[in-house]
Design brief:
homotetramer, 199 residues, mainly alpha, I/LWEQ domain, 76% helix, globular
């Protein structure tokens, strides 16, 4: 009954605003005209953790946007429940500037890590719920079963990577950033090998 | 004469920005590297009322977006007056971050409750006016009369729930949040019973 | 050569964000749990000028969005120069939160009035330039000449009203808000009379 | 496999939000009711560098939006890698309010100039990479080869102008703004001469 174009519009809006609001957590250093270059560079370097958080959060959000985009490529129809799962998903997406702000100050603090990674895990879990529900209730355009199972795997991997990061953050806070690039690299290698086998 | 696609575009924009700006009312606690986990958790717990307001406001706004979306599903044509009612509706939607900010500080204060619930009531009343005007001026695509009367009922319920909340807030500020979940639960049960009868 | 849909998309984005950012100029009063109702109401009443500016600016921006929307209803084609006039137009639209912030503090100060009304005048002038250029370069869909001349008149009126407000602000700052409602009322009466004559 | 409409939607969102957030770097002067006109004008004039940065950054961002818009006019298809180059491009676009904030305070300081011009150079380089990749991988609609080579030249010029500005900023910070208008003027003259020759 519901058209999917406005849900896509709202989602693109929330994603683009969230990704752009992240920049407001980078506070412009208050410097004077007589500051030396060395002073200013020092102040910019102190923003290092905030910049790292900005880049990582922007790219993770971009990745979730990409996966969300792909799910709607296959979703033919939307019902009320799917729409509400989407709103919850967007609620956690738009919480990211807060979580990123917490992380910017305290890159390796267990509490900020739990909050930040927990936020990403909630996004991944809701994206997964949205996708599995759409699959089960037969709301998909079933033209491309192999692409659909590949997307199912990718979303499940997003859940796995943040669940593992959460466990790592519990024991070794300084290592919690390792699972994400490892999975991305592994996934890329796996897909490249798959392509060469087929050809 | 007017196309409805750009009004939908402006509305989706205002809704997505408002919903995302709510997060700016959650101030990141200023903590130090030597803060203990217990300190940080305490500070996050102090944000409890602000988080509750964030979640509730995001979901109510999502609900209004959903109802607004449904009205435009049936509206075939737009005239100048309908457009201005919509702009007033969007003006109260975009006031939500202010009302939510007031509520975040003082969850059970009568004045912040009146302001917040009054804001939601104004949104509901303008949505109702927009819908009734479109119906009366025959701007609807009248293909589905039963769905149209169901939507009329739903929007009237949104008005009722916030009007009742306002009255409750006057006598018992701490109970003003009760009408909304009661109505949602009642509505859901009613619709489920309706479905089973039909089948 | 250029499609108009993305220019409409960018414009709707800038308008909806600007209109929503206006709310950030309403500072939530910092009150305590033990504030009395009278204290809080006092603080909200002190925000009176800021609220008035919010409402007026939101509605004027809505009016410009509406006129801009109407121009694109008739524009068939876009060229490079038209696009740049549009970008300048959007630059002054997105300056509105600053002008409104200035006005919020000092409702009848000559300098804030000049800045605010000057901003609105610049928007009106650029909208006029955009429309006249599109007309002269034959970029319009000329199906409805009477509607086109009516729109030309309306946009010229927007320029006139803010030019007159500017002059009034120079001599009588407290009266600078009078021309706008007078023109709106006059225009509405004129159009109603026109309709009854035709029928 | 991927549709280009949602990437355009996300891009338009990021551009319009970034361009509108620039205004938040213009701090409204805190003045009193008894401030004289001269006082207020002084305070507005002190915002001069911030206004100059606002105007220049808004227009440069508008220029990049325009070039990005033109590239998607010719791009027929999108693949995963192109999408990620776009996300990186958008990441640097949404960093502009920070760079502009740095510049607002210190217009001729070498460090803020390097940061600001470096940001613009990164945007230009990623736009160039996005375009050359799309060309090489045959993702373009090759109907208009002369327009495509003209766009290739324009994007290369954007890279050149910010690379030269960077070098100028190193030796003569106060002159780093010269290359941009010189290139724009030169390009406009070149295109006008080209038109007259053809006709």
């Amino acid at each position: 009954m519901l058209s999917k174009s406005r849900i896509e519009g709202l989602s693109d809006g929330v994603f683009s605003i969230t990704m752009t609001l992240l920049v407001l957590k980078l506070e412009v250093p208050m410097v004077m005209h007589h500051s030396t270059n060395a002073d200013m560079l020092d102040q910019l370097l102190e923003l290092g953790p905030a910049f790292a958080t900005y880049v990582v959060t922007f790219l993770i959000a971009g990745g979730f946007w990409f996966l969300h985009h792909l799910t709607f490529h296959f979703i033919r129809q939307v019902n009320g429940l799917l729409l509400w799962v989407n709103l919850l998903f967007l609620m956690f997406v738009s919480l990211l500037p807060f979580s990123a702000g917490l992380m910017s100050h305290l890159l390796v603090h267990p509490v900020s890590q739990f909050f930040y990674i927990g936020n990403q895990l909630a996004i991944a879990l809701l994206l997964n719920a949205h996708w599995l529900y759409a699959k089960r209730r037969d709301l998909l355009d079933s033209a491309a079963p192999s692409q659909i199972s590949r997307l199912t795997l990718r979303i499940a991997m997003a859940v796995a990577v943040f669940a593992i990061s959460m466990i790592v953050a519990f024991f070794l806070p300084a290592w919690s950033w390792v699972p994400l690039p490892v999975f991305l690299l592994g996934g890329t290698i796996y897909e490249w090998r798959g392509r060469y086998k087929i050809q």
